Structure formats: structure tokens, C-alpha cells
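Structure in, sequence out. Go:
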């Protein structure tokens, strides 16, 4: 099964002590286990743009739509046997110690 690990953190707090080496080690562990499919760090919310279309009119908004304490900071796309395995990867992610990691299963296309 494919899962997205959505990394959230509060951008108003000082940059955390979590080292880039911690993320590199996590990346390497996922690659070695065959779990890593992809991922990326995202720019801060001040670089975000939100698009909404209502009644055929496009609305362009600066920043994220929702007012939340934690913002989406990055993501991993992983392959895991089930939610329990995905949860184990999320718990190992350094982002879990400085914010939150949301796990979302991807929709699977129906078999023909």
C-alpha cells in the first residue's frame, strides 16, 4: 500500500534542533528498506498560493487557506504493508519530534 507521510510543524517557533543528518539517516533507512518512493521539503507558507474556483470564477489567495498552528512542511511517499508499518515509519521520522506526522493512505485505482 502507498501512504503519504505529511510533515507538519509550527513555523512561528524557532528552527528546531533536529539536524539535517537526522533526516538524511531516516531517508537512508527508508531507501534501504525499500519503503521510500519520494518526498520533498516544502517552502514556508509565505510562499504558498491557494486557488479556489466557485461559479466559474477563479480566486487566488496568498498563503494557505486554513488558519492552523502547524503548517505542512514536507512529505514522504512510502510503500508499506499496512497502516501499522506506515505508523512505524512515521514514528521514526525526525519531524514527529518537532511537530506532527499525518499518515494518509492513497486511493488505489480499481483493478481492471
Amino acid at each position: 500500500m502507498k501512504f503519504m507521510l505529511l510533515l507538519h510543524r509550527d513555523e512561528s517557533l524557532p528552527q528546531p534542533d533536529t539536524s539535517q543528518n537526522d533526516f538524511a539517516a531516516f531517508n537512508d533507512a527508508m531507501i534501504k528498506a525499500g519503503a521510500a518512493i519520494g518526498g520533498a521539503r516544502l517552502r514556508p507558507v509565505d510562499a504558498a498560493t491557494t486557488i479556489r474556483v466557485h461559479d466559474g470564477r477563479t480566486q487566488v489567495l496568498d498563503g494557505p487557506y486554513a488558519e492552523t498552528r502547524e503548517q505542512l512542511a514536507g512529505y514522504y511517499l512510502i510503500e508499506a504493508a499496512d497502516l501499522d508499518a506506515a505508523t512505524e515509519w512515521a514514528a521514526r521520522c525526525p519531524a514527529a519530534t518537532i511537530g506532527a506526522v499525518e499518515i494518509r493512505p492513497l486511493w488505489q485505482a480499481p483493478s481492471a
